[in-house]
Amino acid sequence: MVIWGLVLGAMLVAIVAYLCLPGLLRQRRPQEPPLDKGCIPWVGHAMAFQKNMFEFLRGKWAKDGDVFTVLLGGEFFTFVMDPLSFRPIIKNTEKKLDFVQYAEEVVQKVYGYQRLQGDYQIIHTASTKYLMGDGLKDLNQAVLDCLSLVLLEPGDPKLGATHWQEDGLFHFCYNIMFKAGYLSLFGCTKDKEQDLLQAEEVFKKFRRFDILLPRFLYSLLGPRERLEMGQLQCLFHKMLSVRHNQEKEEGMSNWLRHMLRYLSEWGTTPAVLAKFSFMMLWASQGNMGPSSFWALLFLLKHPEAMQAVKDEAAQVLRGTKLEAKQSFVLPISALGRTPVLDSVMEETLRLAAAPTLVRVVQEDCTLKMASGHEYLLRRGDRVALFPYLSVHMDPDIHPEPCTFKFDRFLNPNGSRKVDFYKKGKKIHHYSMPWGSGVSICPGRFLALSEMKLFVLLMVTYFDLELVEPDTPVPPIDPGRWGFGITQPSHEVHFRYRLKPMD
After folding, report:
1. What is the DSSP pairing of strand 75-80 with strand 382-385?
2. In order of start, what are the domains of the chain with their CATH numbers?
3. Which of 12-26, 303-317, 471-485 is predicted with the least confidence, judged by mean pLDDT?
4. 109 marked as part of a ligand binding site
5. Beta strands 357-361; 382-385: pairing state
6. Phi-psi region for residue 279, left (φ > 0), alpha (ψ -120 to 50) or beta?
7. Could you count the other beta carbons within 10 Å of the beta carbon of residue 58?
């Protein structure tokens, strides 16, 4: 026993040394950015970073300037904060910065899916074919049909009632958008009531997974939560398996069916297909509800913006009405004639989208800044951009950046505004809610059209009001920075009712 104890102790010391020594021994080399390894070996600043990424990076930026390197959970991240210097990172013409490696690490940990060679091309091809152009029109119609199903709930008059209902706005938006998106992508059966019950159950599990996700990625979950996370991953693998969803195959979206068919033809096992479906579920639905929450909240808090959207909706949807409380009528072509709503959504995403864009350095290289300064980047490190802080909240680019201005992205003639400046120079990356370059979201057109459909339905067919009109916009949950669309730190209660039919 003593010998085995010594052996295990030696192994533990070796593992700790393996993990910690690179960080302990690393020193800043000439021309490298300022280096901060923190006080805790291997962990570095991971806990402070996860607790409030925004405040952490703002403090480091003020102290160390536009480029700095920090240790986060065994990895060194170099943050570049000057948006005028983003282009060489995003374009990456010399191919020394890689997005795929980091993405593979994340999807393996979160979804249990080990990427297959060529699957990125399958996703890109399917997204181009079915999430743009005529393919997107078909999917938008399916989303509209599912929004009608979820909002009007045949057989259950609760949501379809014309008397006031009360709910938390965040829960309402997340719940409705998730269920409509899930059913439109993964399909329905002939039993609509059962479909709604199943979608509600999937949403509850998805929401719990979503709550645990940030700390899971930073490896900060306790033992019980780690066990729960593993159980949730297995549950989704089962719920989204091909066998479990066979009866829905005809109703499945062409987008998802296309990808699963090609992967199957490559000999991909059913277990791996289920993990792929889980990844697609998160990619398509993880941000829809939170985005819609912020959009409706900003409209409810800004009556002039709400009125402008209602006026536009009345103009483009002239003559449409609810058909016997069975389905909403909304011409899909109207989505292309809503410049005011487009500006509202772009402004909402500027204030609510806070993704982190990460690239892995493939070989030692030099980063040349717009100022002319050059920094050496070390092979194996991560280069990261956080556009929310460095772009969306920059008062030079967006005056009064913390204020919601529904017409910020509109020119006086009603066209889309695309000319923004920093230090007198026109800036290309003035808003980056979808990422950029090779990592730009392939489903961004579907996501935007889904949110616009939801907002148009809510302002056209429903009366909406906050329970407490003077309630302030809640602060962002500090644990959600860097994970796509932010979430509120607390709920906001509102009332809604279906407008009476004429």
Report:
1. parallel
2. 2-114+356-385 (no CATH), 119-354+401-498 (1.10.630.10)
3. 12-26
4. yes
5. antiparallel
6. alpha
7. 16
In whole angstroms, give the CA distance from residue 495 to residue 337.
Answer: 29
pTM of the predicted model, to two decimals?
A: 0.93
On whether the CB atoms of residues 344 and 313 are closer than 8 A, the answer is no
382 is in an annotated binding site: yes
Write the DSSP assignment of 442-496 as a string of letters.
Answer: TTHHHHHHHHHHHHHHHHHHEEEEESSTTPPPPPB-GGGTBSSB--BSS--EEEE
Check whether 22 has a pLDDT greater than 60. Answer: no
pLDDT of residue 247: 64
3-state secondary structure of 484: coil
Residue whose token pair is 């402070």:
48
Report the alpha-carbon distance of residue 12 to residue 34 in Å, rounded.
32
| SS3 state of residue 498 | strand
Judge whether residue 181 has pLDDT over 50: yes
User: Cβ contacts of residue 253 below 8 Å, gap of 6+?
Assistant: 130, 139, 142, 184, 185, 186, 187
- Looking at per-residue confidence, does 305 or 501 come out higher? 305
Distance CA 133, CA 451 (A): 17
Considering only 145-159, 281-295, 482-496, which range has the smallest mean pLDDT? 145-159
Q: Give me the residue label for tokens 């992508």.
A: 185
